[in-house]
# Entry
Amino acid sequence: MKIGILVYPHYDFPPDGYGPMQTVACELANGLAKKGHEVSIFATADAKLSNNLTIIPTKDTCISKDSTVPDPKIYEFSTIQKVLEHRNDFDILSSHIGFHILPFLEFLNYPVVVNLQGTYSNEHYRKFINQYQKANFVSISLAQQKELPGIKFAANVYHGINVEKFPFKETSESHFSFLGRVSLVKGLDIAIDVAKATDQRLKIGAKYDTNNSKEKEFFTQKIEPYLNDKIEFLGEQDFSQKIDLLLNSRALLFPIQWEEAFGLVMVEAMACGTPVIAFDRGSVLEIVKDGETGFICPAGDTDAMIEAVKRINEMSEEDYKKMRRNCRRHVEENFTVEKMVDNYEQLFKKILNNKENI
# Structure
């Protein structure tokens, strides 16, 4: 198949730090190319991808590293323009820009798989997306599907990671970790409250956009006053730093405050053997096995998360090692790149076969 992969140039390809959508798109492109498909990816000109991929450049370098860009929408629109220029060039396109592609489907002369990457509980999202009932929608969790009850999904495909890139060990250091963004919806303030209440060390790896007024206010008021020798803010982590943080953590705290469609960091943590302590929101129940690969707490229940931290610390050495082994095995069985690529490949073939039979 001639396959196009569409993603915005917000972060590096593949990202060395933050950039979950770019990570997934790059792994999907590489995986499909390994299977012999002719794959083109809309990416930055400096993308570090395998030689058997065709790069359709949408910008010279990523937006996050270009301080001269006044508005990311400039390159979001120009990326869509690039897609329109290639309206005849693929058998199928896998779009990872959420609902933004929907108004342009009628101008493309091939089927498009619309990967819905976000959280769509707001009624305005629903009204807009519901106009495109015939699109080939793919969810990244069943929880995400529940937010769009009127949509018929072509498939549900979980994100997968290259497990070989994530080392595993049965032991850890004593600190807990948080990895994500400085954002109210990620619950970093809750993670700090839990660490304080349990007198535990917390290492925070978080992308912090000082140009974002809401993030800056949140950090200044809710985070910065509580940083000390025990609660350490490390900033955004590159890949090797992320691995070191996760691999050596007693557990990852994931106190999300929204219905997150798929928390990739939970999978990355478990691949290293690190249990996840999370609030029961969004896709958490689909990713974490309560009592086996971590603990799931009622949504918003900080006291329950405090008790979960205590349970982790009170586990015998052998029970804790068993939980870490469970984490690794769970990822190997459910959230690998190979499984994700196979699922997309099967879906693409099904869509193209149906098109031929019409």
In short: The chain has a mean pLDDT of 94.
